[in-house]
Amino acid sequence: MPSFEHHGHRLHFETYGEGERVIVLVHGLLLSTRMQQPLAHELARRGNRVLLLDLLGHGRSDRPRDMWRYSMTAFGRQIVGLLDHLDVDQAVVGGTSLGANTALEVADLAPERLRGMVIEMPVLDNALLACAVVFSPLLVGLTFGESWMRALSRAARAIPPRALPFWGDVLLDAVRQDPGPSAAVLQGIFFGRVAPHRDLRRTFEAPALIIGHHRDPVHPFSDSGMLADELPDGRLLEADSVVELRVNPRRLTGEIAAFVDACWRPVRAGQERAWASR
């Protein structure tokens, strides 16, 4: 499996397609590259080189049990590390939920490496209470009920891969993981910053496509709208539901592909000088 070393740990990644137009897509919390594979295949078919990365503690990347190794800023550095490893100067960086916030971290850490951002379901100010309600019991279960969760993990691993429909198997992958590192991931995120502060977000100049939807308190549409207002070049796209891109992806995939095409159009000399100065 392709991987690279970043700060002493191996990070797994996958490549779809070829060419100079590079897109990095990042998974959601405790999930893996598999959740972005359908979109990666479609964007690669349209002439892009798509990179999927398992962040530390996820998928087939290393999964240390030290909570201090996990933070949104560290995840952003891992994206930059992937670009460095592959000698990629610029990329469109996007992701879902955790992956969306990771893209924002890249905008803070290395804006000159960004050609654009695809931000699906960001987790910002209006989501914090719902996240505490949803993820606190999971964190307690993973931490104090580790033996029980490990038994559940073994039972999940007994189910053959791909025995379930694709999305059922993607979710089951999270259950198959050792619960100890998963608890460390949650602890590290809970005790760090969730995203760059709004004062920083207002300085992010890379074009951004922000995809939000209603009826999900963990990813409230108000957060997506707020981010679109904050970013100097942000555009809001409303999804029908949290699953539209997964079960009926044609419309959103077309919008994402068109946005990526726009990001890779030749830029004016003034824009190049502005990027270089940053």
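The record above closes out task 2.4. Task 2.5 opens with a second protein, given below.
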Amino acid sequence: MPPITTTTEVNRSATDVFAYATDPTRFSEWQTGVVSGHMIEPGNPSVGTHCLTTRRIGFANRPSTSEVVHIDPPRTWGVRGIDGPIRALVDITVEPITANRSRLTIAVDFEGHGIGTLLIPWVVRRDARKEMPTNLAALKQRLERHGDAATH
């Protein structure tokens, strides 16, 4: 199956959109179910650095670790899950349209391990398909409404 891909245009620069969309400490502000997130290693992310994201799944908080597999600020960023039964593969692309308008595309796919193999086609992909447009709308609203307050 192809990745679940969602695109939106944001009235902000590519640099601002990229910084916000790839900052794990901000994921809970726009991603459904995310409780917290942070880069494990200090400093600017690079290929091989790790991100820890905690999501509310059912009645429990579930941490998952992802590894940065490619990064080219402010244009592309990709991570892949490295633990747990369901491992996300996320690719973000930011394209400048004008100096203050950008196109953001997020593509998400999943790898299953153990029970995750059964859950992905019946639950995980269905939920992601529903959540992605809502998540991108929240990101767009936050960046456009809050201006500089939405970025560090």
